[in-house]
Structure formats: structure tokens, C-alpha cells
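User: Batch of two.

Assistant: Item 1 of 2:
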Amino acid sequence: MREHDPLVTQRIEKMEDLRRNGINPFANDFKVTHSTHDILREFQDKGNEELDKIKERFSLAGRIISVRDFGKSVFLHIRDRKGKIQIYIRKDLIGEDNFKVFKKFDIGDFIGIVGRPFQTRTQELTIMVESVKLLTKSLRPLPEKWHGLVDVETRYRQRYLDLIVNPEIREIFYRRTRIIQLIREFLNERDFLEVETPMMQSIPGGATARPFKTYHNTLDMDLYLRIAPELYLKRLMVGGLERVYEINRNFRNEGISTRHNPEFTMLEFYQSYATYQDLMDLTEEMLANIAENLFDNLRFEYQDVELDFTPPWRRITLKEAIMEYGEVGEDVLGDKEKLIEYGQKTGLQLDRDMSLGHLLGHVFEEVAEPNLIQPTFVTNYPTDVSPLSRRNEENPEEVDRFELFISGREIANAFSELNDPIDQKKRFLAEIGREGETVEVSGLLDNDYIKALEYGMPPAAGEGIGIDRLVMLFANVASIREVILFPQLKTRE
């Protein structure tokens, strides 16, 4: 591992010197009894008079993140999973030989210490070290916090360094875990069953997206990484599991941006004997519950804008949203030629072969979606852009569906489920560009799902929520890469 970097070479020499002196630079025999948080919580407010009476000795371990050397004594800060604490090491207390070994330690090394708490003259709670042990020798110097790791791409490529020198990044992922815990608790309390469905599927289904393709050698068949778990979760409702959910990894072979990662996390849940309107109520309650738990408030700031999660949230149809934000009359939305002309004026490149429903979807995304800042349910989507949704009883050209938008981006998609197998097969065939109920499309038409519906699926509603985008909101970050530990990046040349 010899390198031209003199700092790396110096640390390797220190490591070898430690070995020669019988010190294992990668020891694994130190027992930790307390975290930094444990010590700070218990003793932060106590003065030295109280602290001097403590007979117990405490064992902590962590990474050295700062050093102030005064010759015969040294102040350090170590950081563990819970935070950081100052420690004080004196030559006369740990012994000359041990102090000589300690002097070979560097910022970045992991150490274990045993000692007692006291307060310095500046009132900082500190551990007076009585013994210290090297646990891991760091062979590369850490980047300096304010000057070393500021390049965004480097932060994502070397997330381990990002987590070391930018502890606020750790908090994002602690918060992410907390959000997922709150979702689980909320659904479990309402008798939903958490399940797991296949991530490798013979037919990509449940959403419209380009899949990743792979090959199974033993089975001698192509498989796809799932783009959604939807069709498998609905098979479970056919089987009698009336309320199910999965927090799942999905894969879509599409673009990468501040809002998109090819591998992402979704919550999908399905409830029998419910409609999309029931799920609007449930979604309000669930997300408001998360906000209340995180902030003790239903109002919080996202990117310099205050969001208000107080129910009830606004509900508006897709056409109403276009008319309001696009300043266009309803007559234009029902006329394909007028809509194309209007869309082109807004800068859209629209294909004349598109259906009216697809045109409406593109226009909505352009003129309305960016303006939906406060939580807003958009309903009444066109049937031809919703192949798995139940048709509206009063207007079969629309479906019983909503999408939830917050801060100008889609957070959730839900609908009353289509459980008519004949209608479902027709829509599948239309979606893949074929016509006729008897046409068999190998590898594209999920005949087993149609067969499952023929056995009968109860009336139901289902929803998908993008976990990554949800965490972006609650962590107040603008890029999806900030909430994914290892986002996908193009390989450096």
C-alpha cells in the first residue's frame, strides 16, 4: 500500500512501528459500556464536586476527530454513533510508556478509553482518561472539515468520508430511519400486514417504465428487476390478505437527476373495501403524524418555504389545476387540436399521435405541477394514462385516482383498483400497442395476473409513496442524492 503521499507513508510507518512494539493496530477486544450520549445526558449538568464522588469508571470508544497537544497532556475529541465528547490524557496518569505509544495515534484513529467525567474550567464535560487503547489505525488522513470535502460529487462517491467529516449528514439518515419506523407503526396499528414480493420478475409490470434486464443461468430465462411490486401485492388480496404493504426497492432504467435515482425506495400499500377517497384521508393522517413526531408541529420549513400539513389538504381535479395555473378555458381541454396548439405555446413538443389523456398529462406537468407547493391532491386522471385504475362510474373517460403533490413534485400516486379481469386485459393490450382480447403477447402480457383477477379480487384501493422524496421534504434537502447513502453516479474515467 506504499504511496507517494508522504502523510500516508508516515502513518504506515507508525503502524509498523506499533506492530514491532507488540501493539495490534487493529484490535478487537475492547468492551464499550457507555456512549458519548449516555455520559453527556447523565453528567452534563453536574459540577466537579458531584463528579468527584463518582467511583464508577466508564468505557467509551470512538474516532479521534481533533487534538490539542500540550506536551505532557493532550485534549482530544472522539466521536461515536451518538455524538462527540472531549477526553483528557495526562502522561503522569497513564504512564510514560503508554503515553509514548499514545503519541503515535493520529486524527482518524479509533481508540477505546476508560476514565471518569469532570468539568474543565470552561465548563466542558470531559473524560479524564486512566487507560487508552488503539483499536484501529487510520492509514489515510481525514479531509479537513471546512476545506477538504466540499465537492458534492466526491461526497456522494465517498459517502463514508462525508459521514465522518459532516455529522449533519448522519442526521439525515437517522431521520430517514425514523420516518420509515413511523410509517410501519402507523400501518401496523391499522392491521396492515408487511410482506415481501419478488424483486426479479419474469414480466415487468405495475408501472410504465423501462426495466433493467438480467438473465438466470440455471432457469435459462430472462428476468427483470421490478419496476413496481403492485401486481404481486394485488395477488395477495386475491388470496385473502386484505391489507398489505411493502417498503420496497424498485429499479427503473431511466434518467438520473436531483429527483430521480435508478434504484429507489417506495412504500406501496393496498386496502380492501376502500376507495381512493379513503386513502386520501389515510395519507393526510399518516404524513401529518410523521410531521408531528419529527417537529412537534404540522408546519415546517422546506427550502425557505413554510409547508402546512394541517388536514384537510386541498383537493383539485387535473383539469381544474390546468385551468387555474395555465389560465386556459375548459373548452381547450376537451379539444385535441386546441390542446396541442395551447401546449406548443407553452413550449411543449407534443406528438399528434398522443391520445387526449396523454396530452392532458403533459400539459398538467408543464403548467400546473410546479405550482403545487402546499400538500394538494389532484384527482380525476384520464383513463388512458391509468391502466390499472378503476373507471369513474359517472365518467368512464376518467378514473378514481389521485396524485399527491408537495413543493412542486409528486409524492404519492393512488387509485381505486381495477378488479374487472376483462377490462384489465383490454387495457393491458392497449398499453402494449395490441388489440383484441384473444391476442397473447409473450413476455409482456401478465396472463397469471389476469387469471388471479378471474378468481376475484375484492374492491380495493392502493397507493405508492416515494420514500426518498418524502425524506427530502422532512430533511429539508433539494436533491434525492442527499437522502440515498450511495446514489448511482457515472463511473469516473
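Item 2 of 2:
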Amino acid sequence: MQPNQYRDVRLEKLEKLKALGVEAWPRKAHRSHGIADLAATYADAEAWTNEKLEALGQTVSVMGRILTIREMGKSVFAHLTENGEKLQAFFRMNDLAEPGWDMLKLLDMGDFIQVTGPLMRTKTGELSVRVKEVRFLSKALLPLPEKWHGLQDKEQRYRQRYLDLISNPDVLKTFQTRSRIVSAVRRYMEDQGYLEVETPMMQPIPGGATARPFTTHHNALDMDLYLRIAPELYLKRLIVGGFEKVFEINRNFRNEGLSVRHNPEFTMMEMYEAGSDLRDMMALTENLLSRVAREVMGSEQLPWGEQTISYAAPFRRLTMKDAIAEHGALDRALLDDDTQIRALAQAVHVEDAATKSAGMLLGDLFEHYAEKQLIQPTFITDYPLELSPLTKTLEGDEAFVDRFELFIGGMELANAYSELNDPVDQMARFQAQMDEREAGNDEAMLLDQDFITSLEHGFPPTGGEGIGIDRMVMLLTNSQSIRDVILFPLMRPTKPSEAAEPTE
């Protein structure tokens, strides 16, 4: 049958349910236990035999979606699911009060029901509810994906995530784990004395990162606003205002392409601590990841594809030049000569290698030779000034800045600075960014005069960092695409003829 035919059949059953006096969509379920609680409490079949369950004499009421249903004479077996766990419901004709048995004939996979009765084990040892009372909760008018193969098409899985969660228990588990990861991150930050704050998501000037923003318009004020590309400049204002340690787990928006590692809307945590520097951010970061891995995943040694990543602190530290030399098998001395850097970049066909600065070319060489090779957690330090307009320079070397990026699994996870707190220097760097915009770089930063004004009121030495939450979840759950850890990733619109349809 076609989907519309399935729907018509179910609508007929709905009318029959109403004729029996059954309310198809009641206001509330009345349950005594969750299926997951029962599954966990009575999981041990040897400790909880059928005889012990009968002696316990416990009557339970649970609700769930019907995943399977099969009739065997005057008995019916159904599997109910809730929160990723399953429980069998065992119906016998003589056990049910009216209109129980007649109602069972009208049930379909996907319907929600509530069952009440004592716990038991079947002859195969499966924990079940011996149903004495059944109550209808919701009629599913469309069928679930084919029960044996689940929802396999990735495009449909992302577009119809609700079906993906129903059909693929591992997907549901990933997103449950994501929630626990975010909770563990928040607890860790609070344990370190950080306060969680909220800053604007619509900003008159997009700042804090080099990225192309999304633009919107406020009608009442007749002004353009931008969805934030980062909360950085607002969080720094809070340090100026007297906060010592702040963090925000936030949504950022960058008008960029889509890939297995990029989504235009993504989740990041940014934190700032007055009086600290880059080394403090390193210690905080490696201890955070080690603790979250242990607490949520149960181990500091976790799979990533065919490899194993160790989240045990401390993590390795490499300068950008050392990483290029090591993974490119190059003479380290070549990277101290601007002419040699340009020649190396031209040899690997870096775009615009003849006109870019040596610092920009170092970034290109790092991406070419080293980035994807950094599987184990590695802090890359000593970035060229051109790549870091908001960062303090290294002591004794004005061409490089006190910055790290943390790479794990061949991708950037975190970015941290010893923050620039000199307003005169900051103004000069903003001006350099504006010059880049005039030269055609749409992602260069705009001048934020109010931020400069805040720095002129005094900004203490501060360590700051941003950590990609989506990528952290990818790494800890061994998910190879960012779309697998974002519940509703951005998708290209489909034509009506291409719209995914449910199948059975």
C-alpha cells in the first residue's frame, strides 16, 4: 500500500475506536513507572524469576509506543518503547475488561497505549506486564519505517529526525549522551567557580571571530542586526564590569558552507577568567575533557573510527612551526625564513601564495601538512599575529601571539588566547581588519567602538577560550558527521516530489 492508503485504513480504525467509546487522544497518561526504570530494576533474570515477581505482587502502569504486535490465538504480545527502552506487554482475552480485547484488534504499530498489570517473565525469560487494563493514548495515522531495517536513508533520517529516533536506538542514545555531556561540562565549569551568563544573540556589530554573519532587520528601530558569530566581545565587557569568571554555552551562527564538520548554526562554550592566561586555559581544558570522558563515557580511552583517543591529561603541546616540520618532514629552520615559507606554500599550491603574508602562509601550511594528522589531543601554540587579531603577542616576539588551538581526531575543538587588553593595540588591529574588508575580505572584523571604550575603562589580564560542543560530542560518541550530533541540522529544501515519505 501507499502511505495514503495506510492512513485511510488507520482512519477507519480510529472511527471504530470512537464507536467503542474509546477516547483516541486523552489529556493525560496515568503511569506508576517508566519503562526504563522497570528494565533497570528487574534486568537480572536470575535474581527476578517469574516466581519472585509473582510473590512480589507489584502492579505497574506504564505507557509506551507499540513497536511490534503479534497475535497468537487468544493471546497478544506487544513491545512498547519509551526513552529508548523496551518492555513486553502480554495480553490474554480472559484477563481484559471491556472493551480491551475489541480495542486490541484496532491497534497499530506506532500507537501509544498505557497498560496496567503485574510484572511477570515469559518462558523465554523476557520481562513483561501481564495486562489487566489497557488504555488508548494516541493513534498514529502514519506507519513507522519498516520494522526490520529501520530508517536507513541518511537524507530522510536528518529531515525526519523523529522517525530516526524511533527507528534507530543508537541515534537516540547519542542524543541522550549529548545532553549528559553538556550537563557534565556545565557542572565542571560551576565547580571551578565560573558563573553562567547570557549575552545577545542579535548584535548591531558582529564580532569576536572572522566569519560572515547572517543579517536580519529590526522593524521598530529600522536597523540591521546580525546573528552572533561569537559572544566574545560581550563576555569581555563583563570582565571589565567586575565578573571574575564567566562562561556561556551558546548558539552561534555563521553564514558558511555545510560539511561533516560544519553547520551554520552550532553550539559553543566560551569562557573568560580575569587574572589568568593561556596556560591556565590549557589546564582547565584538558581537565574538563578528562573528567567529562570519565563521568559520561566511563573511560578516558575512547574509540574514534578505527583508532583510540586518550583523554588522559596532560595533552601534548606543539608550536605551529614544530607541527608543520614534524608532519611535513621539513627542516624546521626553513620555517624561520619568509622566502622559504612562500616557496613551500607555492610548492603545495596554496592559493594566492605570492601575495599572502608569511604568517598567513604558515596557517595554510599547517592546514596542509599537520591538521588532519593530529589525532591525539594536541595543543598547537604560537600563532602568527595575522591569524589572531584579539590576542596578546608573545613576549619577545611581536610577530606571533599567545594562542592555542586544541586538535583532536584531526579537527579543531578549542581556541584560546591570552586576551589582548591594550585598547590602543586593539584599535590598531581593528583598523587592520577594516582595511582587509575594504580589500574584499567579507569575513574580516568590523570596528566595535563600544568594545574599545570598555577596554579603555580597564581590562585585566584575562584568559579566554571557545570550545565547540558539537565537535566534542562527535569525538566522545565516535560520530563522524556533525549532522549525527545535531538534532535538526540545516538541510537544503526539497521539491514536493522529492519529499521523504514514510514506508512500512
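DSSP finds 15 helices and 20 strands in the chain.
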